[in-house]
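Good day; I would like, with your permission, to put a structural problem before you. What I wish to show you is a protein chain and, alongside it, a tokenised description of its three-dimensional fold. Thank you for your consideration; the sequence and its tokens are set out here:
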Amino acid sequence: MKILLYRPQGRYCPIEAIYMTARGNPGHVRAEDQRMDVVNEFFRRNPDYGFVKFHTHSQGTIRIFGEQFATHFSEGDLRSYEEQLRTNPEFIGMVVTPETKLLYAPDNPTIRVVSGFPSEANERIHRELEEIKRAFGYDFPSLTATRRGH
């Protein structure tokens, strides 16, 4: 599982960075405590940021659990999102499948894809996350995405 970090700008929430919070398999994903410590400290230091809780329903998940997972949230997704909304009314959940992108939030958001990624903001956020990780004495991989062959 990942979170997409954003700072609201009026009616829009442009994504500035992606951060991995959990790992799992087609049936279950679990947040990693150290990664959650780091990102929660980031949000404590940067209260103007919000996040989209993001994961996928892969072809493997769909093959194992059924075609409905290609176009719908799982019951577990919905339970988790309802729980999140009780404590955070600005919560946004997102599931990406090979067929679609699903958003879950009280104000019925939509996705707009634009060209370019705010690389300066992404680099700044990841530098701060790395500083927090070092300050906590944690030693997990950063998992920065790179293009293959580069």
Observations:
- The chain has four helices and seven strands.
